[in-house]
Amino acid sequence: MNDVERILESYEVRPTAMRTLIYKFMAKNNRAIALSEIETAFVKADRATLSRTIKIFEKNGIVHQIDDGTGIPKYALCETRSNCEVEQDLHIHFHCKYCDETVCLTDHKIPHINLPEGYMPENVNLVVKGICEKCSGV
């Protein structure tokens, strides 16, 4: 059993060949990825299988969905099992207006937000937009 298969099993996800390939693809890219990019990378795969895989990954805390303002949901791998939980991982996302890439800035945390009693947060999203280090030439 390889490392990716062990990771998937630790999230209680059966490590099928397609799930392993998608996980490796996302890990290699190290940025938020739209479902259409995954479909392009795996043109011979069934679109429903790809979509179902991402939904399984999201449900089991392997990836989190990012709304970066483009109107296209993107998905990024979580750092650890608990890091996709609202109370555990409130990090900033950065969207570059030139290369159109969105990345997780996990070292830059969103401060804890105290909501009134009875409010139950399910998702927190902070997207900073601008020019990434690759495009700025710094």
From TrEMBL:
SUPFAM superfamilies xrefs: Winged helix' DNA-binding domain (SSF46785)
Coiled coil residues, start to end: none
Gene3D superfamilies membership: Winged helix-like DNA-binding domain superfamily/Winged helix DNA-binding domain
InterPro entries in the cross-refs: FUR, WH-like_DNA-bd_sf, WH_DNA-bd_sf
Record-linked Pfam families: FUR
Name of the protein in question: Fur family ferric uptake transcriptional regulator
Native source species: Mesonia maritima
